[in-house]
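Give me the fold.
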Amino acid sequence: MNSSNPNPLNDKKVIRAWALFDWANSAYSLVISTAIFPIYFISIAPDSIPILGRDFSDSSLLSFSISAAHIIVALFAPLLGGMADAGSRRLGFLKLFTTIGSIACMILFFYSDAPLVWLGLTAYIIATIGFAASLIFYDAFLPSIASRERFDAVSAKGYAYGYVGSVLLLLVILFISQKPELFGIPPDTTIPYRIGFVMVGLWWLGWAQYSFKFLPSDKKDETQKGLLKAGYLEMLSVFGELKYKPNLRKFLISFFFYSAGVQTVIYLSTVFAQKELGFESTELILIVLILQIVAIAGAIFFARYAERNGSKRAISLMIIIWGGICIAAAFVTSKIVFYILAFFVGLVLGGLQSSSRASYTKMIEREDEYNSYFSFYDLLFYLSIVFGTFAFGFIDSLTGNLRYSVVVLAFFFVIALVIFIRVDIIHEEVLPQSKNS
């Protein structure tokens, strides 16, 4: 982190520009990764896809594609993190990966039938890489635009912008798909959803231009030499230090397992509902909308719960709820019950991620360790997505039954809870309970 930042901290216009990038890129997060593309892919792709003499189900191949994208990001995360910390190419790389991701989303328009499955998967993988890599540089701007005591508030503003923006775009795409004749689109075609992919790319790239205009400019006086080696050495250094920090090590191991479960649910829950329960596309999109709306209230509720009862209790409770959701999903046969489960997913969706990051911050003992430890945290997060989605796809391809894959996710949460209850979240202040509370 470079303290010689010529841009004033806590500037409202700059913070708005930073938060608006979340408004822009959350369109990918909701529409492409969760709400529409997984549903579209399962409906378009062949049920069985041959690769190297073996047949893979469409759902397992989608899982492996998510894994592949995040393996690539994880491999380059130390290098990208080093570049982000140096700051000399931060805005440039944010523009680069935003452009790559948004164009890949628009290319999905040409994925119109089964023979083009590899075009669809390739564009999807590239879009996912663009999204994940851009977040590394987006997050790195936070210390440059806000003072430390405002990190939580500014970060929450970004999340809020992201929820609202992505839901608005999803509603527009849903309206087009339900009323195609109003736009001169023939009914019973894939065109509305393919237009939706183009809209995501345009939305992401278009709104990002405002962020690019007002975010701090790149520094021109620093070199990028040696960042690849330095980045990987930094990761190894943090890994080595964890041997002497058992409390933090336990937290990170638990974080890895419950993140694997959470992120796999985010990416593949609509696939499960579509294949196992026969949900139609519009029903699934409605579920995602409910989930997003509930997630806003859930994040607020668990933030207040953590303030009064401590982050450890809040995170433990959310892990238990997540595990219960997965166990119930493995046996659910009713659409109504699945709607109820979606409500609970929304309740704990934002809260667990936000509480985890806040708790991890409290456990970092020195401010000068912030960058290196959070780079390691981000690397572990990407690897957890690889682990979770690969396990989901592997069990699916092995058994041909997605319910067994969901049971594996439940085990992830059990392992996470067993480890987490032994964690002591240090440097945490809990608000005193009033007599009437």
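The two ends are 41 Å apart (CA to CA).
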